[in-house]
Amino acid sequence: MLDATHGSKRRGLAERFDAALPFALTAVGLLHPESPLIWFASLAIAFVAIAGTLLIGAGLSAYASLFYGARIQGVRRRPPPILSEAGVTAQAAWVAASFAAWPIAQSWLGHPIGLVWSLEAAGLSLWGVLVQTFFGVLAIDLWLYVKHRLLHTRALFVFHKAHHAYRDPTPFAGFAVGPVESLMTFWPILLLCIPEATHWGPAYFGLVLGFIVLNFYLHCGVTLPLIERTLPRLWLNTSAFHNIHHSHVRANFGEPLTLWDHVCKTRLEDLERGAR
Ligand SMILES: [Zn+2]
Fold it and tell me: Which residues lie closer than 8 Å to 215 by C-beta, 6 or more apart?
């Protein structure tokens, strides 16, 4: 009984921390060393760009999924929770924008940042960019897998439950994650503030856009045979694979790639084989 009371108190505290986080990340802008005003203008621009891209993209993907592909969980009995998914996505976009505001303001104020547009400025050959991109994707994917496993522990699931409210998701759920999970996902944007940590713009935005489009597909609720056959050849996640994470919760944790689910044997078929 005491344990249950202690547990619910801890959960309540964690929920309040989660709800307060976007306000705290916004208030930190007041401490901008040069111009809080430019920081807040950067935040507004970043929010419109990120939320606009995510919500318009999700809308187009959701519309397309009505006409193409086979429904994974059968005919919907209830209308999809699009409004709730879109609201949580807008909140996640605000957290991402509160990180993006720092490099944007830094650049606006005339200081160098880590995002460059020529290979010369990046100090790399095209081959060097490919190698950096390959290992960068592996490192980010490993972090996203570890993050997702951590969020499924008893202590941290409170910060991930918003995403699992959608058992049969739509593309609007792709980025519908709570503030702490958004922080754990989007903090690498801050690396752009380090001029020495060069990121070549075309590769950076190409990968970000690719991840966004893939995430819409992972949550669209339908499978397209050609895409389901092609993505696994590149170790990329699929709608069929990720939908299992929403319907069964305890398996298939991979985000862009399924590599670490294979390595750590956390695919549904691995767990079912282990239980036999
Ligand atoms: Zn999960």
Answer: 171, 174, 175, 255
Q: From ligand 1's centre to the CA of 161, what distance in Å?
A: 8
**Tens-digit pLDDT profile for residues 51-60:** 999 999 999 9
Reference 148, options 49, 227, 264; nearest CA is: 264
Cα 155 to middle of ligand 1, angstroms? 14
Q: Report the separation in Å between the CA atom of 143 and the middle of ligand 1, taken as the mean of its atom positions.
A: 14
Where are the domains positioned within the chain?
2-275
Tens-place pLDDT, residues 128-174 = 888 988 999 999 999 999 999 999 999 999 999 999 999 899 999 99
Are 126 and 119 contacting, i.e. CB atoms less than 8 angstroms apart?
Answer: yes
Which residue in 164, 247, 171 sits closest to 215, CA to CA? 171
Report the separation in Å between the CA atom of 230 and the middle of ligand 1, taken as the mean of its atom positions: 24
- Centre of ligand 1 to C-alpha 157, Å, is 8
